[in-house]
Amino acid sequence: MSESSVRQRKKTGTSDGKPRKAKTTQPSLPGVNQQNKMWARLVLIVGIAVVVYFTTFRTREKKFATQRETLELRTQKLDCSKLYFEEIAKYAGCIPADCGRFVSDKVVGPAEVDVLLNLAKSGFRFGRSSGGASILDLHSGALSKDTQFINIYKIPEAKAIFSAEHINTYKHVKDKIQLAVAENFKINKDALFLTHPTFFSRLTNETAKTIHDEYWHPHVDKETYNSFHYTTLLYLTDFGKDFTGGRFVFIDSAGKHNKTNVYIEPKRGRVSGFTSGAENLHHVEQVSAGVRYAITISFTCNQEHAMGDPKFSLDEDDGPELM
Q: Does the pLDDT of residue 209 top 90, yes or no?
């Protein structure tokens, strides 16, 4: 084969001299490819953001006490908040071994609950808030009435509700709860003093009319009431039976974005107690149906803020005397 023939075959691209078919390629679409890449990156970024959100901003739920349980005692220890500890350290005999909270269904008996619930219902016949959150304070006489407060001791007909059984039961239950606080936080009972406000509450699902009706906002008792050092509640009705909603909720923080809602389901005769500092941020869920009755009984370590038991003088018009 001559050299010229070889050169010719190379030019045509085949060994037999036949012309080679030219390869065809699809034209590139740079705009479409770039758009696909952008969408892929966006999906990746959104996926990462979702993962970060659910691993960083998390709210867990924990049931501390359910209505079905009957608890001898359940406790949770917490670190005292700095401001709370700095203040309470001034009061010898009143410094808790640990800050925290407790629940017990064995402090107050069923018969005592019946007497106190009867007293509450009788008192609230003379006044209720129009916005769903009513209070009755036997120490000051304050009773919710529409959007205001009245003095129940100024109502002559109201005197008939305060029997000796009511008065003695109220005092006896207060003493038992005071002892429970002292035992659970390992403090001297005589270093604890009843303080204001201590009151019955009646919560319903009626629309709030004033700020006093908005009981569901998170708060710290020590910041709301400076005299508080220990807060207790005695529940007079049952969650899930007498009312729905209305659970007591502690809000525990773990870092900046993680928190745990710790629930107490109210139960007749159940007592809960806790240190009143920022370690126990809390609120009450809005009641969705029914009526929730409870008593808030508060204690101070500062004798200057002490409040005596109410001594009902049924022959006078000017209200209770303090013992």
A: yes
197: preceding bond cis by omega (within 30 degrees)? yes
Strands (E), the chain: 59-65, 74-78, 99-104, 133-136, 142-145, 148-151, 193-203, 230-235, 243-245, 248-254, 258-264, 271-275, 282-284, 287-290, 292-300, 310-311, 321-322
HSE-up (13 A, CA, CB side) for residue 224: 18
Q: How many CB atoms lie within 10 A of CB 166?
A: 19
CA distance 157 to 126: 9
Of 224, 252, 248, whose CA–CA distance to 235 is shortest?
A: 248
What does the pLDDT average to over 240-256?
92
Question: What top-level class would CATH report for the domain 63-143+156-305?
Answer: mainly beta
- Write the CA distances from 232 to 177, 198, 275, integer angstroms: 8, 10, 9
Q: Work out the mean pLDDT of the chain and round it to a whole number.
A: 87
Q: Who contacts 300 (Cβ-Cβ below 8 Å, separation ≥6)? A: 192, 193, 194, 195, 227, 228, 229, 230, 306
Taking residues 39-67, what's their average pLDDT?
70
The tokens of 118 are what?
Answer: 């009867």
Residues recognised as catalytic: 292
**Residue 198 pLDDT greater than 60, yes or no:** yes
Residue with the two structure tokens 């039961």: 169
**Does the pLDDT at position 191 exceed 60?**
yes
0.85 cut: is pTM over it? Answer: no
Return the pLDDT at 200: 98
Structure tokens at 291: 């009526």
